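S.,

As promised, the zinc ion run. Input:
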Amino acid sequence: MTNQQDRVLIFDTTLRDGEQSPGATMTLAQKLEISETLDRMGVDIIEAGFPNASPGDFAAVREVSANVEDAVVCALARSVSDDIDRAGEALAGARNPRIHTFIATSPIHMQHKLQMSPEDVLEAIRSAVTRARSLTDNVQWSPEDGTRSEHDFLCRAVETALKAGATTINIPDTVGYTVPNESADIIRMLRERVPGIENAVISTHCHNDLGMAVANSLAAVNAGARQIECTINGLGERAGNAALEEVVMAMRVRNDVMPYQTRIDSSRIMHVSRMVSEATQFPVQFNKAIVGKNAFAHEAGIHQDGMLKNAGTYEIMRPEDVGIAKTNLVMGKHSGRAALREKLAELGYRVGTNRLNDVFAKYKALADKKREVFEDDLIALMQSSASEDANEYLRLRSVSVSCGTNREAFAELGLTVDGEHREVSATGDGPLDAAFSAVKKVFPHSARLSQYHVNAVTEGTDAQATASIRLVEDGRIVVGQAADTDTIQASVLAYVNALNSLASRRQKRAPGAV
Ligand code: KIV
Ligand code: ZN
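Predicted complex:
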């Protein structure tokens, strides 16, 4: 039985602070899928966005509110009436809404950014929290740059927020400056000095600029915080936020020294990690704790020997605990749809009949090309088919390239453009330059290729390659991803998928025109 004293609330801000990471924009459909998964895995509070920041953010908060069943849905608002009212409107359909309002309290932010006196900041806190409380009973307040705020003023600010009705007090380490001892001391100081704080939940929100976000969050919990704000894969501005998977697994694996409980079903961690990485096209670093490709790989002979004798010799948690299946080999070439559906469900994908048929056809084609199909192949296949299905303005039918030392690369492509078949060719500085130039002939654009990477999904020269592409046009970012055993084909498909997103954006801006 969980003792309420030991219960730590998990507040996920992947969709808000995570999305603030440059280039990590997610579509509404992706946000809905991620929020559903977070809700199912037991996240207590989902911060869905900052409604007054853009119509897209407003729509995301509104839709997530309507969809989420158990978790509290939270919307961010600066300390201004418009923001707070928009947050309230966007949350109107939520079963459990929360407004999160904030203002900076450090001398440097108040003086240079806000250009407000400390007394004015206190007044802004009073009026923002009061207004938020008139819209919902669940109000969180944050002193931005809290860890660099003067302690006396921080206490006065927190007291003001509490008196105005804040129910959660979140202390952000906005610039990732604090260290574990200090993080704990601030929480202890607030608990000792601020009247009424015992009636509120204290929260911690740490950025990772010095690589200490997780350590600082856990230190805050040790000192009495009972909510951790975090993101999947540690996504977030600059060096990111505390990673959800790390704080959760740290408290679980070292429950002997950190005796706290969360509601998180850790077996869903890997799935949501892949989902976020795919949506944002932010790759997960290979040696990232918990969710990195190498997190459970044992290469050294001495380690492998120990592992075979007893997994506990080198493994402090089991791969299954975070949703990595014991065996990675999927199925044979003769397996049927039912087996595929079951395997996909095991990997966390729920597919309807149409999607299953589509993926099944691709699976068969892949099994024909590759001797062995692994789970990672299946995941790559799911990710690339989701990207292809997103929009169909352009569809790649065929690619043929010739290139080599001392000769110009030449590419010939067959494409369907808005339903019409076209054959195009171009030369270029290498096979991709030639192929991308050919695509540009049927879809002129001024987008800059800001990122391109290719990864082998598994080992072996017959491995599938996943290609990821990021394009920027007029400050807008679109991404595309695709997988194929042919690297050139995967890259051109990824490019076409990104251009399809561009086409759909252009259409939204000027209906009818692409
Ligand atoms: O880092 C920060 O200060 C924030 C606040 C809005 C909570 O994200
Ligand atoms: Zn933040």
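The chain has a mean pLDDT of 91. The radius of gyration is 25 Å.

- D.
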